[in-house]
Structure formats: C-alpha cells, structure tokens
C-alpha cells in the first residue's frame, strides 16, 4: 500500500504527525482512563470483576491478530484476509472434529491452517512481488469461499468439552484464558518489534524498502515471515473464537479484518509504514474494548457503536494534524 | 501503451472464452436477451467501478462506496415516502453521494489522512447514520410508489433504463478521462505525484475530485439499487466495496495508481458479473461464488504483475516509484 495523500511532497520523517506520534501512547492512555472513569460513573455493574472479565472478549481475539498486523503494517504491507483465515481455520477444525479428532489435534490443525494461509499470502506478496492489499482482497474471498463450499448454509457444532477451555476457560479465578494469550502475545510481539534486529529490519523496510534491500536486508524473506505470523495469530484467534462460540459457520469472524486494522491504526501505527509501537496497539485494544463495553452497558446498539469507533478513528488521527496546522499558521 | 491495449484485449478474450464455455453447455445464456439481463444486473458494479477507478488512479482507495450507496438509497426511499417527485430524488441522491464523497476527499486533501483510514472510518459512520435515521427499520416494496420502482426497469429500445444509465456513465467517464484536463490530472497524480506538482497540478485537489466523482456515482447507484430490488435497509450492498475494488483490479487498474482505462474497469466488472450470473445457470451452487471470484482476482493480478514487470534493474526508476 503506497497511498500518497499529502499535499506536499511526502517527507515521512519530518511530518508534523510523526512528532505528535511520540506522545501517542500518552494520549491513548488518557483516553482509556477517561473512558474507564466514564464507564464507572455510567453503570454500577461496570466494576464487577466477572463483567470486566467477560468484556475482554470484546477485543482479545482481534487484538491478538492486531499485534502481527501492526508489524505487517509497519513493514508497509497489509493483510485483509485475517477474518477469512479464521473462517477457514475454524472450518478445518470443524471437519476434523466431525471426523473424531482429539482436542490437541484440533488446535494443531487450527494453527496449521492459519500458518498455511499466511504462507500462501506471503508467497504471493514476497515471491511474486504482488501488492498485498490486492492479494489479500483476493485471498479474503478465496479462503472464506472455501469455507462456504465446505459448509454451505450448515454448521459444525458439538465440539468436545475439553476444547471449550480456550474460549470459555479461566486461568486465575477470573482471568480468561484469552486475556492471558493476549498478554503473552503482547509481550512476545513487543520484544520482537522493539528489541530485536528483526524488528529494526521491519522498520527499515517500512521506511524505504529499496534502501533496506540495498543495505543487505532480505526484504522478501522478512515480508514472508510477517505474513506467516499474521496467519499464525489468526489461527490462534480462530481456536479461541471457535471454542468460545462452540460452533463453526462460514460467516464466522466476518468484518474482523477492518476492526483489526482499526485497532492498529488507532494504536498510532502509520498506515504508510515505518512507524508505530506495540504499546500503542495494546492501549488501542483497551480503548476499543472499553468503548464498546461502556456503550453496551448503556444499551447503545452495535451499529451506533461502530459509528463512534469510526469517528474515533478519524478524530484521533485528524486532531493532532489540525493542531499542528493551527500552530503553524 | 501497446501492452495496455493488449491487456484489455486479453481481458475481452477471457470474457469471450468464459461466455463460450458457458454457452457450450447452456446456449440460452448467450441469447441477446439474457446478455442484456446480465449487463443490467452488473450495472451497479460498473457504475461504482468507474468511480473507484478514478480514486485508485490517484493512489487512493474508497472503501466507503457501498455504505454511501446504502445511505443514498435509504434517503431516496424516505424521500419517495414523503412524496418528493422522482427527478428531484435523482438530483438529491447524486448531490448527497457527491457530498459524502467530498467529506472523504476533504479529509484526504486538507488533513492528509491516508484514504484507507478515512474511508474505513466513514464507511462505518455512513452505514451507522442510516440506522440513526430509521432506527433499523426496513422500507419495503409496498411502501414505495410504483413510479419509483418502475423507472430503472422501464425498457427503452430493448434495454432497461438502468442499463442505459450505465452506458451513459461509461461514455461520460471515458470522455472525462481522455478529453479533459481533470482526467489527465488523475493519471498524472497517480503516475508521478512529484512531477505532477512541478507541472502545476494539485495532488490533493485531484484526489478530492476523484472522491466526489466516486461519491456521486455511488449516490446514483443507491437509488437504482433500492428501486430495482424494491427494499431499503441498513445492510444493503454490505461488503460490496470489495467487489468494486476487485472489478478494478481484474480490469487492470494498477493499485499503486496512474495506470488503467475505463474499458478495463468496465470489463473487470462484467467479468465478475458474468461469473455471478452464470453460476446458478451452470448448476454450481452459489456457495462457490466467493472462491471463484477470489481466484479470478488472484489470477488477474498475477497476470498484470508479470506484464508490468520492469525488465532488468533500473535503480532510479524503482526509487522514484517507491514514494
């Protein structure tokens, strides 16, 4: 995605937005705390630990994928097929379950399908040099299409009770398994992006892929690995979501890709590549979770929530730019 | 220019082959009356693909077109319920669609927010606003006047008005692209923004114009959609934005901007439209539709990429493109 949108010749490094980005996490933290307080005031049921714990389901599955997606977007690519990878992975697990597979095998097949889908995307993008936004629009239809072919308007239900642990289980009294997976993923991706040479190469590719290639970075291999990671995280999310719902339908997780991208962008990752942090993504996930949960407590319908999330997305990005424009003027 | 021409020729050939394969088993499908029906069915996709093409040419993308369509369709249905005459409704939806496109365009132009982020946001906002207007209620056929419903289906010289509107739009956009300064600007801005600036073309203004065009076409399609299917609700044309992008991509519009033709976009839309219409005829379950159109997209881009590949390593050219 090389969308060029500025009025002047683009100069990413010195754009006014990049300076605002440095305090982005601070801004998100303030927003999160403000919404938390508002929620507490809005409903006496908000602070109930069981409520809060169940509320985490609002964002954990999407946020797990958002970490891998953040790295992909930092590298200047995008994966719009993640929702469809979930569907295909869930379909494979459903078919295996119907054939009598045990829970460990189900999980393995779920993750394996995710990785395979990621490898397919990565191959097309990295090996054949095709634009990722188009490739993944294609595989989005393809992967979900295969689920529809396999299932039609039917569904797989009757997962074994041991499988339910991933999406419905609790680890420490009230902490959900999904929240633990989310936390571990945040840690791993945080280290991978910010503390390893691999992470630095990802930034380098996002800032200037040509320069990165000439400085000896194996750009295509890293792109391929990033797609594998997004596939793997989609596979993990698929295990969680399938386990939580206890059934597979071909329409499962539809529209996930846009919510995942929304979390990543809200987290301060530049859609043009080259900048962003995992901490921002974690905070954005909490903001999204708190907003939807708070609005849910107030009985706001889901579609109105999506207006607010959409407006939040634009506002959070527009306000720092408006601010810097007025200061320059 | 030579390979651009041949790409469209190959796409035309692919459509002919596709029709031939279908006709070999179901000759009824290629009867002129049925082809006219397929073309009419594909008219909304063609109209939106024309607008999306202009947007993609300028290195942007508009994910809000389907939501814009649904919004304008609902407004058209509401206006009809309030007794507004049809010509006024038509003007209103085109204007409303253009304004919604202008909102996208302004955010991209004035604030420099990437178009994918802007339209991701406005997509949910526009669709959500329909819910706020109606409380989620449906407007059904019996709540629409017969004149409102009949207009797009009215047959004129063998083709419904809806098909004629698509043909007129194709002609107008083709004129705009090839015969006006604005059309040139779309290509210039997408092909090389830096050079465009030096040539005195405003990048942002051209992108704004592209969004307004896409919006106006989406607004018009909103009325046509609602009138033809005689129902308006929040989720009409859900997910259609990706079909529209897919049609452009199959038609050879380069997603990085600057390259593509009206003929390509129209044929890309027709290709998808024929597949969609042929599946039930050939006896393949409609559940195959997504997988088949997904594969078609992948094959099309793989083909485009191989024909566009720069031979040898021209470092400066690469560096200039990677903005």
TrEMBL record, chain A:
Keywords: Cell inner membrane, Cell membrane, Membrane, Transmembrane, Transmembrane helix, Transport. PANTHER family: ABC TRANSPORTER PERMEASE PROTEIN YPHD-RELATED-RELATED (PTHR32196), AUTOINDUCER 2 IMPORT SYSTEM PERMEASE PROTEIN LSRD (PTHR32196:SF71). It is found in: Cell membrane. It comes from Paracoccus aurantius. The complex is composed of two ATP-binding proteins (LsrA), two transmembrane proteins (LsrC and LsrD) and a solute-binding protein (LsrB). Pfam families: BPD_transp_2. It is a multi-pass membrane protein. Part of the ABC transporter complex LsrABCD involved in autoinducer 2 (AI-2) import. Probably responsible for the translocation of the substrate across the membrane. This is Autoinducer 2 import system permease protein LsrD. The keyword Membrane applies. The chain crosses the membrane at residues 26-47, 105-126, 133-151, 171-193, 224-246, 303-323.
Automatic annotation (TrEMBL), chain B:
It is found in: Cell membrane. It holds the Pfam family BPD_transp_2. This is Autoinducer 2 import system permease protein LsrC. The chain crosses the membrane at residues 39-58, 65-82, 88-109, 116-139, 159-178, 185-203, 209-232, 244-275, 287-307. Keywords: Cell inner membrane, Cell membrane, Membrane, Transmembrane, Transmembrane helix, Transport. It is a multi-pass membrane protein. Its main location: membrane. The complex is composed of two ATP-binding proteins (LsrA), two transmembrane proteins (LsrC and LsrD) and a solute-binding protein (LsrB). Part of the ABC transporter complex LsrABCD involved in autoinducer 2 (AI-2) import. Probably responsible for the translocation of the substrate across the membrane. PANTHER family: ABC TRANSPORTER PERMEASE PROTEIN YPHD-RELATED-RELATED, AUTOINDUCER 2 IMPORT SYSTEM PERMEASE PROTEIN LSRC.
